[in-house]
Specification:
Layout lengths: L1 H16 L1 H19 L27 E3 L1 E9 L2 E15 L13 E3 L6 E7 L8 E7 L4 E5 L3 E4 L5 H4 L2 E8 L2 E7 L5 E8 L6 E9 L3 E6 L5 E6 L2 E13 L7 E5 L7 H4 E3 L3 E6 L3 E3 L18 H21 L3 H7 L3 H37 L9 H29 L2 H12 L1 H8 L3 H10 L32 H26 L2
Antiparallel strand pairs: 1-19, 2-12, 2-16, 3-4, 3-9, 3-15, 5-6, 5-12, 6-7, 7-8, 9-10, 10-11, 13-14, 15-18, 17-18
Helix pairs in contact: 1-7, 2-5, 2-7, 5-7, 5-8, 5-9, 7-8, 7-12, 8-9, 8-12, 10-11
Length: 509
């Protein structure tokens, strides 16, 4: 171990005494910051006077949420049960946009969003973001029980249109809410049972309909992908509505929660002797960024990482190839014949220096970048302190391991210009392809196997299975979990170093 420490110290001395290399480290941090803070996204949040600030409601788990729907409701005091039959569920969605007319007028056609929802809900208050439990029929996700925006339990498959009417029931017993479904109103199957702590004695129970933002990928010239989205609308018909228990009878109220489309409660909800016809738009779900959401994430501030990555990759290559070019590597091996130790020391030095540059650059841009985006009127989904620390440390680790991979490639190629070009194409180019050229499917596949998979450490918000969205790298979502993507890069770096060590022992013996 003492020999490795001495070798690392010697390699660090080499590195820090070359002014160009130290300037390169500063350039890596500077590019990460500079490109991240360049004028870019613009929004309208807070730009139209008081009240124009973009603020999403916060759910019971502290996560910002979307809470918009049409609601036929009445108070329910104490224990009770609500039953209804959904006899139809139809909707309208935006037409497929013409890539040649990006600014053309938005039109709609008959169709139902997969996550359109119509069913029964028990909600603590009518305030957006309050606790709730619901059972619902969906566009094509079958029956579901959902609660508190983040949690989803699947019931039976099938849609109302193809399988006939769907009977639904919600039952409250204390803080426990049980959901059930039936095909005929006689034989019932439990979908799920959950506990809502601190549920008030009097809650609001009733029928709801909502339909989320539509999002789809569009392709243009040279396969460059874009995204298009727009509001959708769903209409459901309910009958056989009965309430058991829950205190004295109260009249049904028509309420639009949040910003549920452009319809008023009177327009969205119709009642007749049989039941209700309810039209709604929006969602009851966690807030997301991208085509099906609003704003962006803190990941947007790290767009300059690829610039810093190119610099540290070049540094990793020249740190080894310079010695080959000047004939100094044999001198280094004469001083320390343990070839693997020399290669490890170089990797530790360039990796450690790149890590520091990456952490410093990421820390500055994560803090200042969010402030700049908000000052430009852009809504930024909040990220916890832990998430922001992971982004900062992960970015440093990304640069560090990429530089180590470049050392291995430098040993194998030995010519600076060729090795730098190969390293950039191998490490950086897949990221640029996935972000701006390839269709989402191909880009996602590439970011599972290429070293650029490590950019997953910069994902700041999860992809929710119950929220339809374009979860693409361009929107800040990656196909692998953060540390799984980083492990792909580590695997490539390890392979490169192992092969390089074998080559050094044979070629430079």
């Amino acid at each position: 171990m003492s020999g490795l420490v001495r070798t690392v110290r010697a390699e660090w001395t080499k590195f820090r005494t070359v002014r160009g290399w130290m300037i390169g480290l500063l350039a890596a941090a500077g590019l990460t910051v500079g490109l991240g803070l360049l004028p870019g996204l613009q929004g309208s949040c807070g730009k139209q006077g008081p009240g124009s600030e973009c603020r999403a409601p916060v759910g019971p788990d502290g996560v910002e949420v979307t809470d918009s729907f049409s609601f036929v409701n009445r108070p329910l005091t104490g224990d009770g049960s609500l039953t209804a039959r959904v006899t139809s569920l139809t909707g309208r969605i935006p037409t497929t946009p013409d890539p040649s007319l990006p600014d053309g007028p938005m039109t709609t056609r008959a169709g139902l969003a997969p996550w359109a929802k119509a069913g029964l809900i028990i909600k603590a208050t009518t305030r957006p973001g309050s606790a709730y439990a619901a059972v619902m029929a969906t566009g094509d996700r079958g029956t579901r029980m959902q609660h508190n925006y983040l949690y989803d339990v699947a019931g039976s498959p099938g849609s109302v249109a193809t399988t006939g009417p769907r009977w639904l029931r919600l039952t409250r017993a204390g803080d426990t809410i049980t959901a059930a479904e039936s095909r005929d109103g006689l034989q019932w199957t439990e979908v799920g049972a959950i506990t809502l702590p601190d549920l008030p004695d009097t809650v609001y129970a009733g029928l709801f309909v909502t339909s989320p933002q539509h999002a789809e990928a569009i392709s243009g010239t040279l396969g460059v992908s874009g995204a298009a989205g727009g509001p959708t609308e769903a209409t459901a018909t309910f009958d056989r509505v009965t309430v058991s228990g829950g205190g004295p009878n109260a009249p049904w109220a028509s309420t639009v929660i949040g910003e549920s489309g452009s319809r008023s409660a009177a327009e969205a909800i119709e009642s007749n002797a049989e039941g209700f016809r309810v039209t709604g738009s929006g969602d009851i779900a966690p807030a997301v960024a991208g085509a099906a959401g609003a704003g962006t994430t803190v990941t947007q501030t790290l767009v300059g990482t690829f610039g810093g990555l190119i610099v540290v990759v070049a540094l990793g290559v020249v740190f080894i190839t310079t010695e080959y070019r000047r004939g100094l590597f044999r001198t280094t091996l004469s001083a320390n014949p343990r070839r693997g130790q020399v290669l490890a020391a170089k990797s530790i030095v360039i990796g450690g220096a790149s890590f520091v540059a990456g952490v410093v650059g990421a820390a500055v841009v994560v803090v200042l970048g969010q402030q700049l985006l908000k000052a430009n009127g852009v809504y930024v989904l909040p990220a916890t302190i832990g998430t922001q620390l992971r982004l900062i440390v992960g970015t440093g680790a990304l640069l560090a391991v990429a530089a180590v991979l470049a050392v291995g490639l430098g040993v194998l190629v030995r010519r600076s210009a060729a090795a730098v070009m190969i390293a950039v194409v191998f490490i950086v180019f897949p990221y640029l392809l996935a972000m701006s050229v390839l269709p989402a499917g191909a880009g996602g596949w590439l970011l599972r196997v290429a070293p650029a998979a490590a950019f997953a450490v910069q994902q700041s918000t999860p992809a929710y299975p119950q929220v339809a969205n374009l979860y693409t790298p361009a929107s800040g979502y990656f196909p692998l979990a953060p540390w799984a993507g980083f492990a792909v890069l580590c695997g490539w770096a390890t392979l490169a170093l192992v092969v390089a060590a074998l080559v050094v022992r044979r070629r430079d013996a």
